[in-house]
Predict the 3D structure of the following.
Amino acid sequence: MAAEGSRISILCFFTTLLCFSLQTSEAKVRHYKWEVKYEFKSPDCYRKLVITINGGTPGPTIIAQQNDTVVVDVKNSLGTENLAIHWHGIRQIGSPWADGTEGVTQCPVLPGDTFRYKFVVDRPGTYLYHAHYGMQRESGLYGSIRVSVPTGESEPFAYDYDRSIILNDWYHKTPYEQAAGLSAKPFVWVGEPQSLLIHGKGRFNCSTPGLGLEPATCNNTNPECSPYTMTVVPGKTYRLRIGSLTALSALSFQIDGHNMTVVEADGHYVDPFVVQTLYIYSGETYSVLIRTDQNPTRNYWIATNVVGRNRTTPPGIGVLNYYPNHPKRSPPPINLPSAPIWDDRRPRVEQSRAIRARPGHVHDPPRSSDRVIVTLNTQNEIDGFRRWSVNNVSFNLPHTPYLIGLKHKLLHTFSQIPPPEDYDRARFDVTSRARNSNPNATVGDGVYRLKFGSTVDLILQNGNTMVPNNSETHPWHLHGHDFWVLGYGEGEFDPKRDPKGYNLVDPIMKNTVPVHPYGWTALRFKADNPGVWMFHCHIESHFYMGMGVVFEEGIEMVGDLPAAIGGCGETKGLKLHGKP
Amino acid sequence: MAAEGSRISILCFFTTLLCFSLQTSEAKVRHYKWEVKYEFKSPDCYRKLVITINGGTPGPTIIAQQNDTVVVDVKNSLGTENLAIHWHGIRQIGSPWADGTEGVTQCPVLPGDTFRYKFVVDRPGTYLYHAHYGMQRESGLYGSIRVSVPTGESEPFAYDYDRSIILNDWYHKTPYEQAAGLSAKPFVWVGEPQSLLIHGKGRFNCSTPGLGLEPATCNNTNPECSPYTMTVVPGKTYRLRIGSLTALSALSFQIDGHNMTVVEADGHYVDPFVVQTLYIYSGETYSVLIRTDQNPTRNYWIATNVVGRNRTTPPGIGVLNYYPNHPKRSPPPINLPSAPIWDDRRPRVEQSRAIRARPGHVHDPPRSSDRVIVTLNTQNEIDGFRRWSVNNVSFNLPHTPYLIGLKHKLLHTFSQIPPPEDYDRARFDVTSRARNSNPNATVGDGVYRLKFGSTVDLILQNGNTMVPNNSETHPWHLHGHDFWVLGYGEGEFDPKRDPKGYNLVDPIMKNTVPVHPYGWTALRFKADNPGVWMFHCHIESHFYMGMGVVFEEGIEMVGDLPAAIGGCGETKGLKLHGKP
């Protein structure tokens, strides 16, 4: 029966591939040529070295239609630093080597080399791309992907204009400086960001007392850091595609005087609901519709704030400019939306629960799962180093990428001990508000090997950090798949009781989802995409400190790997035959 | 006759290898394990991220005896940055893949990987090691190599104690920031260094007006930047092995009240001469003898200053501590040696001319050469980018290292057009003091292919830069060889007249030599070391901007290349069979 299931799964996979090829017969190839390098920029008025793509950060927005093939030739001109770019939300069906996850799906791209990423965008929606190598994303290497429905088809909602906005938090220290602190004994935390950026523009106060910043270093009149301004015409409907690629911060997003109707999340249509404040976590995307139906004789504030942390970062501020008002005309100061209470997680949990699939666009989840993996995230100290762990194992990337190691059976390149399926309930009381002081975590690079075609439940379990009475929000991102979001809960997940409350009727599918403080989140996915896939906290420093796991499924079905993904660890001298 | 000469050369080569193996029968293996990472340090009181080896900068001094095998296992823990380490002055006979020149002899070492450098130190003397990748050396990745004569043998001079000192200049900007400026349009020059370091210790004035530095960033009482102190006992002779690894600066070195007798240069014995001021250029090493015969009741200043540039950098200061005076007891301020006049090059040229081989230790140079390559260095602009060129070609490294490209006949990986043997005398008047405004330089990566065993003369020709009435000192370093220094001259080298004045009697052999402003330097070397070898200006930014050339000789005699040097460019998937 199991063997038959497996055969059926393989059949389904190839049938899907076939249908897919048929569907793409009219699809286009979208070819981009990017040069990635370091340049001095002042995104928030403070001049620092950032990583640009073709001279900008954020990089160019990739615009394509469903089933198009996107080809991006990335030239690394970073001098002495490697890179890898992940196409966040793109499942890479049939192209697992193009996922851009350094250490998992490829060796990094060396300076001087040009790497070809080639993949099909098989679903319409709002996606992101960003560096997936150390904490390189924080240097500014990121952008948007906008996939529209094929010509002749239409979305299940109407709008006149389409705009992309990426939210980000911004640090003045380099990822090198931050990493040195995170890896030091004693540990030095990265701290709160200096500013919030709305599509690459923010504002740091150059007159901050005690800093003595020269105008050459920080200049609030620099046009590079003029506020983000979106010009709109009155009486229209705008689709705003909002993504977050913060290094750390959970954010609120508000537009003075304008309601937002949430219609899409991570590439899936949402049963529409209206908010004044949108909460968004790193790695998430939302489409909201706004109607420019307010008093057209003035402009309106756009504001984003840190939530979930006791913020020291000022709001990120932009302007919704009603044409023909002058774009530099400030809205009334009194109308600046006030920030949500930072530690009131109720509205954030409510939003999480409100996101359900749009009627008529529900992907039915399997009724049950073949395997349940409970992942408790904890803060730990290992040999005096501060780490994050999952079920008491803190993740380290091996030096040979898993995709190559598994496909070519270099099984000595990583631990063959699978990570735990659950946490030790005798040792961890996730309902405790006391400091988690477990010192016995270990470092590991083992992999969860999933039966191809099986259904897997992931239960994200949160608890207290190493600070008493503190639990953090973690946005978890799954590569290569969308998952169904079956439910959220408070306290300890009960494997007997809680699954009975799962939403199997209209769960949204997403690729990134928060686990709220002291809570749990239940996800389900089909292990039906041959490859090796990361699942990790999207907070840059948390991932750096070990907060992630790896799944393998159907490795034997993966095609020939392209030579370009090799070159590191034990892949030197390994002949790879595939094409990107 | 030529064929016979070639056969004899090959015979000599293998005989040498054989003798060499016999000689090394008693030699030891010196095994080092290094971890290279970023850490915060305050070498000159200003706290910044530096690259350390096993926690320090400079790194450990390698101490070995002639004919020992040195094995250094280098683990790259730099996160997202590669590395390569060059063993400066070690000829790498039989191990050209261990020269550590990124892009020439190896691909860079990736983060997470451990690379084994294994080579024989076949001559006693004072050598250096340092990063040879982009401008990474400036981050602090460098150290000394001290090779003593075999047990039972003695040097041709006597001394009681042996000490190593590396001089360096120090910038507060990172190499990434500097490189971004050098590569920008318009060009941003790196400027003068913030301080000079004596063996990793310097002093930046933390109260410099206008900087408003917090004590956490800059603290003049930090013990990390206490002055370099060398404790000596009175009445003894000390051998000081002084090396310079400055990014930019030519330096003077003085010890208050103590003459220095120069006895070694770049691993060769010098006919001794006495100086009060030693001039030293980046990449050079000298051994000097000092006698601690001064008033033993006080300490003495050690001072180093920038020469050849209109310095803004304060002197680097250390203390020669006569035991039992307290090491922190300052010498009298009035005794601080005054800096030489920066633009008086007469004493520097005199020192260059004074360096001759010690009688009884002269290596006779060939009486004539088979080929003469004249290399004029010029500043240029190419497409609006500021560059340095050699005979009007500005050097760029290819993406596939030459050693692999040549050995495996991947001849499409670099230009097959050989660089020019001479400069265009009709176009360049090297005696002119006018701005060099030649806009027609090109970028290239062609190679000088040398007949194995042939004798090659290199004539370094200097001229005016792009600033009127300005010519700079460039220290040129040859990998894989020592060269004979046949002569120095003013103005334009005359190929008919000047060779008649060559010193063929007792020329010193060196690996690094300056070409003085508006002058020329004549070198001769035997192309008898199978491999591919860089010859370049040792100023970090000049090399970055194209001031170098590459020589190939006897590539067909190079043994199997180790797999570890591959992984970049077209070496991906190339099976390399050798061992380090």
Q: What stands out?
A: Residues 1-5, 15-25 of chain A have pLDDT under 50 and may be disordered. The CA atoms of residues 478 and 535 of chain A lie 4 Å apart. Chain A touches chain B through 46 residues (CB under 8 Å). The domain at 24-153 of chain A is CATH 2.60.40.420 (Immunoglobulin-like).
